Amino acid sequence: MIEANGLTKVYGAKTAVAGVSFTVRAGQVTGFLGPNGAGKSTTMRMIMGLDRPTSGSVTVNGLPYVKHTAPLRQVGALLDAKAVHTSRSAYNHLLAMAATHGIPKCRVHEVIEMTGLDAVARKKAGGFSLGMGQRLGIAAALLGDPQTLILDEPVNGLDPEGVVWVRNLVRYLAGQGRTVFLSSHLMSEMAQTADHLIVIGRGRVIADAPIRDIITGKGQARVRVRTDQPDRLRQLLAGRGASIEVPEREMLEVTGLEPKAIAAAALENQVMVYELTPLTASLEEAYMELTKDDVEYHSLPAAEVSK
Amino acid sequence: MSAMTTESTASPEPASSSAGHSHGHGGSLPGPTFFRVLNSELIKFRSLLSTLILLAATAVVMVGFGALSAWGTGQFANAASRDPQAAVRAASQGGDLAISVPTSGIAFAQLILGSLGVLLMSSEFTTGMARSTFAAVPKRLPAFTAKLVVVMVVSFAVTALSTWVAGLVAVPILDNYGLKLDLASSESVKLLLVNSIYVAAVAAIGMALGTLLRNSAGGIMSLVGIFFVAPIAFQLIPGDFFKEARKYLPGNTVEPLTAAQHVPDTLETWQAALVLGAWVVIPVLIAAVLLKRRDV
Do B135 and A48 lie within an 8 Å CB cutoff? Predict the structure, then answer.
């Protein structure tokens, strides 16, 4: 289990991660989804004690990573396919990693076999393709047979067979009751692999829900309503348990009510409605929407500063 | 298909049981004990071809310069025996010319092994290896200390061994010119030990620079600056301050440490030992503190 609490990382003027809180539970694959630069890798490096949070804290199985007596046996991480000395062979890299925890040679051979690296294990890691590098990173993560796995963009650069392999591997590991935390900027990948999804954008958690809920839009469905009596309609809908935002005059964004229920409420009270649009039809769309916002915000540094 | 193979081979059961039997060192502690981290750093050290090439280069240079210097010293002594002017010059250089022949390549050994010290740490950062290293040893300082031990011990051993071999090669050459070199004399042993300790110290300074700068070129240039540029620059700049400061450069501590009698314009032996020690301890401590605090 991974628990982040108000995790924040500021690099100079840039806030990479802004007060992120979440819990990654054991026995399921938790996806960490966000566009490039959203703060996924920074968050993962903070979990692994490589980056020091500016504020907030994060624990793995109840302890900060640094405090574990046998960190590699607690957490295995693939943070970067290139976290290897380019002139060292894959085998020697794994052997050196294993030596820190007294993990025997036979386990090194096991993970090499498991990740399909046999043919290239004696070759310099610097000559590896991105896909081979990912396999080596996954092999290193598995060395200590850890209860928790953190994989940053593990399918990047993998061929289709490798993608399926990673998908099956993480599902299998989660099925054994392990905690699997997997990041990606690819929505489609998450839809096929994750049980639970944490969506991050601009360093903030935007959604944190079971993937089924997110895909079906349950609890997430937003409806855009345009009316000439926004205040009246707002009161009416709020009375029915909806949460409402007012992005523009005469426009409401309603979460928690179906379009039909909104129309019924408007009709009963004789409020004219001239637009009624469901906003999040699918996760893909929701995510695209999010990414689009991200770009828009980048072009508005003033908005960022005022936050 | 591949998915099926994965599922059958990815079983962690044999893994956890084999991992469970692995506590050969450090009793039942499953984590990174210092001995294990040291072992890991040794594996990392010997599995890099570039490292081994640098060690071999040190040996070749030391032995080569030993032989060359033996020949040159012989020629010089030969000339001195015929030419009274040369004899005066020889006498002014101190009686025993042969004694320092085995260590005549030391300036190059310090440059190569000092650079090795820089590279061993800077390459961790330039290649990204540091993220693996410090994820495995998140307390960081055990990995730093283990690497420092490996760098210093190897530098000492390689320097001592190649000095000794250089001596073995030099003895018959010097003998040709009627010069005697006793490798077992206390003077010879002292020169070998002090120079080897000195090169180990330079390697430690190099590693501290590599840790601080995280950049191979910058680290090596700083090292060259301290050991090769500064002594010359300090000599060229007029004024007593630089003349005095020059004594405190690490490269100028060897002479007072090895000389039989006090050499003018150098520190006392005990001062030289302290200064060299400070040149090692201060950068290493700063590097350790910053390594612990900075992001990887």
Answer: yes
Total number of domains in chain B: 1
Question: Which chain A residues contact residue B139 at CB under 8 A?
Answer: 66
Q: What is the ipTM of this complex?
A: 0.85
List beta partners, residue A150.
Answer: A77, A181
For residue B98, give how far its alpha carbon lies from the nearest alpha carbon of chain A (Å). Answer: 42
Query: With an 8 Å Cβ cutoff, are A88 and B296 in contact?
Result: no
- DSSP category for residue B225: I
CB contact under 8 A, A101 and B36: yes
Confidence of residue B83 (pLDDT cuts 50, 70, 90): confident
Assess contact for B280 and B201: CB atoms under 8 A: yes
Name the average pLDDT for chain A: 88
Residue A117's closest CA among A107, A109, A127, A106? A109
Q: How far is B146 from chain A (nearest CA, A)?
A: 11
Classify residue B251: in a domain, yes or no: yes
* Range of the structural domain that residue B70 is part of: 49-293
B43 falls within a domain: no
Residues B247-261 have a mean pLDDT of 90
Spatial CA neighbour of A203 closest among A4, A69, A30, A64: A4
| Lowest-confidence segment of A201-215, A245-259, A291-305 by average pLDDT | A291-305
- Which of B54, B129, B290 has the highest number of chain A CBs within 10 A, making it the mutation to test binding with A? B129
Cα–Cα nearest to A143, from A183, A88, A93: A93
The structural domains of chain A, with segments of one domain joined by +, span 2-216, 222-278
B128 versus A293: the higher-pLDDT residue is B128
**What is A222-278's CATH topology?**
Alpha-Beta Plaits (3.30.70)
Instruction: Indicate yes or no: CB of A114 within 8 angstroms of CB of B9.
Output: yes
Per-residue pLDDT tens over the stretch B141-179: 999 999 999 999 999 999 999 999 999 999 999 999 988
Helix (H, G, I), strand (E, B) or coil at A55: strand
Which of B18, B22, B132 minimises the CB distance to A97? B132
Helices (H) and strands (E) in chain B, counts: 14, 0
The distance in angstroms from the start CA to the end CA of chain A is: 31
CA distance to partner chain B, nearest, from residue A285 (Å): 30
Yes or no, beta carbons of A82 and B33 under 8 Å apart:
no
How much is the pLDDT for A249?
Answer: 86
Question: May I ask the CATH class of domain A2-216?
Answer: alpha beta
- Contact of A42 with A9, CB cutoff 8 Å: yes
